[in-house]
Amino acid sequence: MLKQPYPTEIHYLISPNQYALMIRSIILAALMLATTAAISQSVTFEQWLNLRQAGNASISPDGASIAYTITSTNWKDNTYDMEIWLSRKGATPFQLTHTPKGSSNSPQWSPDNKWIAFLSDRGNKTQLYLISADGGEAFPLTKEDEPITSFAWNPDGKQIAFTKNDSDSKAVKATKDRFGAFSEEGKEYKLTHCWLLPVTTDSIAHPTRLTEGNYTVTDLRWSPDGSQIAIEHQPDPLIPSSIHAAITILDKSTKKPVLIIADPAGDHLLSWSPDGKSLLYSSSVTDTVAQYYKNNRIFITPTATLSPKEIAATIDENKNVVDWNPQGIFFTASLRTKTALFQLDPASGDIHPVATGIDVVGNTTFSKDGQFMAISGRSFTGLTEIYTGAANTAANTTANILAQLTHLSDQLKGWPLPINEVIQWKSKDGASIEGILLKPANYDAKKKYPLLVVIHGGPTGVDRPEPVPTYVYPILQWCEKGALVLRVNYRGSAAYGEKFRTLNVRNLGVGDMWDVLSGVEDLNKKGLIDTTRMGCMGWSQGGYISAFLTTHTSIFKAISVGAGISDWQTYYVSTDITPFTRQYLKATPWEDKAIYEKTSPITTINQARTPTQIQHGELDRRVPISDAYELYRGLQDRNIPSRLFVYKGFGHGITKPKERLAAIWHNWQWFAKYIWGEEIPMPQ
């Protein structure tokens, strides 16, 4: 560093003012070059956000045809548009729906394989539509004053049961007209009820209401003979009420409801048995305080005797049941960085994996006889695709070849995709932690790289290898710029068993921090990273952990907190998911103030040293924006470089492409400044 305002040898050639002007010009030129280099990545943010995504596969009852959805980015209307695509009997897929304004989703086949019913908001409010499997124009089946929220075909194909919110009563409308807009906390909701609709192809039929009462319907399933509907319901649609969910069977003709499953904790409907004599459901039974981090429990009960039997208890993870057909009960479960499909014999309880050749099995549907299936899933190196083929359920099967119906991963051809590597290390308390380390495509083992840590939400989320990690963190571009990215499956993450998920109970933030810092230390010991250039970020629970790191360590040059908790007490009294806090901290703030202080980033705000960016949705109810303002004010009062971006009109997630692009740019700018020393303006 120069001790004089300019070098001695230049002092005699130019004046101090001339020298200052020259230095300023050099700095500006360097900044312009840095900016150009910083924004000239081979894959732009817009290209990344434009990637079309597949999902929501639905196989026809005869197993011959597949309907699925494709989501694309609509910059003009600032939306993500979804349309239904169709492959008939193995033929090349084509776009089945064309929605002028809005999206079409949730395709369901008619029992005779001739029609596809779906939901669409093309008329503003979401309604039920029908389209021929041979193509043509879709036509509406409903014209309700409230949006349709779910539906299911009767097995005879002549009726559809659907759910929708109740309309405002005359009394409610009169109150609004006289007193304007106000609400009472815990009372601001509409109940959802079940309706029965005759399916006609020439006019809009009038539906008949099936359920009444002071409860809300959250799921419905037809019995195989079509004479009954099993419904899941709870007192109201608010999250705390899910602990009171129960299951009732409704006779279609008499509309008489019979409550059959009502444990002290929530009971959640999954499926009828193929013979219509039993129900499959999940339940916490009597455990009303720990469903967020404990494994779900699955039960079968005959409807005649109501004698439940637990199944799949040996699977140490949450089970996602996808179907019960003549071949057995099928469910998926996360196993470390993979998601696998399993088949269970309901008679013997025997379980074996169904080989799919897919690393991450997603939405899965079966033909009526269970012989064929369609899956939306992906390999570690590609985007989500649609696969279909025979459901090979033979025990000890080691191979199952599914046909790949879509080829959306072709969009990535020519991209400098990062190298994904699953790594493991020991945390401070000896817990084994796994993470995904992403390296540049041209990785050089002889170099040390800047490190960016990206922390997932949940805490029961999980990170897996993938070519283009998404949301608001430009991981692909950072790797191309010359950085390593570490995604940590910290304690509490899904896919590692119930015991692992309980390791941050009454240890939130603290244990999570151990896992992140020990991962950084492991990379440093291996000589992979430049510890003078490190950053950290995350959204939701990942944002909370990032905030905790802001006020507990100074190893990072910059941190970005996305929709993160800064104060568990203010969060507890204002979130829409209050039970979450009580379950993880095992107390209310009034019962144990110390645990709330120990785990809150704001408690140690006076230790903060790290420049911190905060990103938050204006209308967030899951993590109310007050937590963002609290952290921001604490940092500002301590003169810590900080900024707060509020995304107008959004809740917990940024769900429109333009604002998501803005959030990406804000992260790109923030870390460019503190990791690479670059001042990058927002593009015009």
Question: Can you describe what's shown?
Answer:
With 684 residues, the protein is of the alpha+beta class. 19% of the residues lie in helices and 32% in strands. It has an 8-stranded mixed β-sheet with strand order 29-30-32-31-33-34-35-36, with helices on both faces. The two termini are 36 Å apart.
Detail the topology: elements first, then pairings.
Layout lengths: L7 H4 L4 H24 L5 H5 L3 E7 L6 E9 L4 E9 L6 E2 L8 E6 L5 E6 L6 E6 L6 E2 L7 E6 L5 E7 L4 H10 L12 E7 L9 E2 L6 E7 L5 E7 L11 E6 L5 E5 L5 E6 L5 E6 L14 E5 L6 E3 L8 E6 L2 E8 L2 E7 L6 E4 L5 E7 L5 E7 L6 E6 L12 E2 L14 E8 L5 E8 L9 E7 L19 H7 L2 E6 L8 H4 L8 H16 L3 E11 L1 H10 L7 E5 L5 H7 L3 H8 L7 H6 L13 E6 L8 H12 L4 E6 L9 H19 L9
Parallel strand pairs: 31-32, 31-33, 33-34, 34-35, 35-36
Antiparallel strand pairs: 1-2, 2-3, 3-4, 5-6, 6-7, 7-8, 9-10, 10-11, 11-12, 13-14, 14-15, 15-16, 17-18, 18-19, 19-20, 21-22, 22-23, 23-24, 25-26, 26-27, 27-28, 29-30, 30-32
